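Dear Dr. H.,

I hope your travels went smoothly. While you were away I took the liberty of generating a structure for the chain from your last submission, since the lab meeting agenda had it listed for discussion. I wanted you to have the full record in hand beforehand rather than looking at slides cold. The sequence, exactly as received, is reproduced here:
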Amino acid sequence: MKETGILTDTTETLENGHAIRSALTQLPRSVAVVSCSHRDVVNGLTVSTLSCPTYEPPRLAASIRRGSSTLASIKLAEMFDVHLLRDDQLDIADDCAGDAPSMHRALKAIYSATEADYLARFRCSFESVTPVGDYELIIGLITDASVGVGQPLLRYGKRFVGVGSSIIE
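The corresponding predicted structure, in token form, is as follows:
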């Protein structure tokens, strides 16, 4: 299968898979927690695939692993929240990527936070989901947002970093 562009055929993609993945880690990405409350159950997870596909109307998009309980809740509730993390909130990123008790403890802290406790917060109305590999790309219309304080937590290379400094090697 020949195509014009960066990848010329499937064989080349497979042979260069490691190089492609390594190159993709060089994209700096914001770290956020995507969460949803449905029928008194709160689910959430850490993502570093957040993007803003359009400003007018304002939308956010994130990739979530297929089969995730958070993804199932978002589809049912038709609403989700995005909490952009600060560079001093690595513990929240780790907890929301971990087991259920850790995730629920972190989400309790997130939902009781004030503007001084986060970088930015968005409320989104679920619009669509598109299967992409073993993930699903969710898109939501931003219905509310607030800005907190601090510097962003980023994913760069294979580590979390703050602006101008490494947090984890």
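Two observations you may find useful: The chain is about 25% helix and 40% strand. Confidence is low (pLDDT under 50) at residues 1-11.

With kind regards,
E. W.
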